[in-house]
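INFO worker-7 received task bundle
INFO bundle size: 2
INFO processing item 0
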Amino acid sequence: MFGRREGERVKDAPIVRHMLPFLMPTRTESAVYFEQRLDVTDALAWLKTRSSGENPPTFYHVFLLALARTLALRPQLNRFVVGRRLYQRRKLEISFVVKKAFNDRATMTAVKVVFDPHDTLESAGARIAAQIGVGRGEAKTATEKEMGIVTRLPRLILQGSMRLQRVLDYFNLWPAAAIEGDPMYASAFVANLGSVGLDSAYHHLFEYGTCPLFVTLGKIEEENRLASDGSVEARKVVSLKYSFDERIADGFYCARSLELIRDFVENPAKLEEAPEL
């Protein structure tokens, strides 16, 4: 009945793709899980050669852009299900958590970066840095302000409000302004667990919002691997774990897309130039 501002309904998908939201109504029961272990030895060495300048790229920048570019090149991954219908997202939006300060008492907040399909490492780095600055700033984000208001409500009223939100979202009546600033309405959500010394972990998918993909990055570790000449070589390796709503695309399409992410992460020089779309 009503369209969605952030997405266009997909009507030409295979018939089974239209049936899946009725067979599996929730993201929890639709989740599939993948793990990748990427050799980032050469990528880290390359990043050291780019360490000068005002905003030098980091490994996190490389991964976020690799994911964004893969979403641009593999558009079926940039879909979502709401109201038991399949939609193509109009933007490339990746959310992640920012810690206000590096201490135990510091709070965390989520921010959302809107990428351009033609972003390079330089332009993407500027977008990421800007949103990290917003997240770490003293002023509260729009999401923090909203949660600060609603959590003051009595429990029964808050519970009823959340049920009403889901009904409105189901029928595409939830305001576009609320969706635009909400990190849970995104192409993907990324958690950099390695930044706090943790390994990657499989994360649940949220029923709230429309995010169909959750990725965690673990800490970079040394791993012995066989070289081409048969010798054993210590390499820098990172583990990535993906939780994925299989209603938006089949496993084969997703697996091939992950190999594209691998190629970009292990060869970040490819991200210096804009892609041909």
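INFO item 0 finished
INFO processing item 1
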Amino acid sequence: VELFNKGNLFYSRRIGSEPLHYSDVEDRLAEGDSLLTNPLETQLLNATKVSGRTKGGLGVGVFNALAGRTHARYLEAGSGEERLLQTNPLTNYNVLVLDQNLKNNSYVTLLNTNVWREGGDYDANVSGAVFNFRNKENSYELGGKAVLSQLYEPGDTELGHSYNLYFGKTSGQWLWSFSYNVESDTYDINDLGFLYNNNERLFSGNLNFNQYEPFGNFNNGGFGLWMGYGRLYSPNDYASFSINTWGWLVNRNFFAFGLWTDHQPFATFDYFEPRTPGRYYRFPTNHNFGLWFSTDYRKKWALDMESNYREYAEDGRHRFNVWFSPRFRVSDRLTLRLSLNSYNFFNDVGFVDKVGENETIVFGRRDQRIVENTLNVSYTFTNRMILTFRLRHYWSGVKYDSFHELQTDGNLGPTSFDDYNDNSFNSFNIDAVYRWRFAPGSDLFIVWKNSVLDYADEPSRVQGAYFGSIGQLTDLPQHNSLSIKLIYYLDYLDIVSRL
């Protein structure tokens, strides 16, 4: 698994995920056609992973998976017959990793990911190199990464690139590092990786002090500072500047606590929220303050808590978040952990729509509340057999107060737009996993998943209160799946010695 995490180019959830043409099915139907089903996932036909490391320290990892064709079903208006519409072609996923260990815990890694699609849909290929060099004392490191992304459309190829370089001190009480990261505006690894957004340059540096030995009434502690300056890749324009600070302590009773701050003392130019190339939203200066604590995990009862408050340089705009997570070790076999999260956004600002022939960009001021509760249960039968159970409920409600036109200078102006845009999202999930380690490196997994999802944007269906959303769950359709996975470890050298 470690090999495939090198370079952060492989995101396993891409395999068997949403079909390529899931979102454009209704646009492809003729007038009068009725959509019957449109599957959310593609069917995985097979997957194979082989990895290992030679005596010379060369790690080799090969992963291949094949996802089948996926079809939506619809009724044709003219004939009344049921038809199929392909939403995902036969797709092959491939990952290759070569990782060479060097002295002083250094390494050099070459990676390649490839997605091949049947027919006229585009293919994707990503190639990268990663390195990390350390001195003999492992006190300093120099590292970096270079990646080339390629999207192969019929008759056209789009190239993108990313690279970063960092240098820092990695041992002692005082630690520091500097880094520079670039992602071009055409860089795209999302066919088999995960990238939130591209078109960025980031200069950053950090300084940390850690006290590892006990002092006074404390076992250890530390504090730190991080600064980041961001620009667009194309055009090379200013985007953001941030300063983060933090400090933490652990006392003799293993009670840990800390504070942190996040400051954006200058306006941020957000080029991504408008969903239009070249346009930006002028994000106001703001200051974020947080605190946390964690009690002694050695005891049966323990509690984690974190909260933060973010204030903006705009009247009435702020955020308040709080997170509680009590845990109870019933016995050496059974452990319970509850996580309660509340995120509250007041007078928040965000993209709404593009309207009119000129595609005027409309933003809205809104209040949003998010509640996320999770229960985790784990039961250990033996040292080779465990059952984990996870129940999660997530609810989000958004209520708009006003709408505004995004002006060319990034500020908000008046608009006549007044469409209804309140919405709510309700999600309930259960994940139960039984794992049996029946031989060294070999596991049997039995997994049950249950999910209920609902997005509402009609006045009669939008759920504006958390407890009302819970009652709504019983009226929604459920999706269940049961899967069995067998992993068997083969020792090549042991097999050869027996022949």
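INFO item 1 finished
INFO post-check item 1: The longest strand covers residues 360-382.
INFO post-check item 1: The two ends are 29 Å apart (CA to CA).
INFO worker-7 idle
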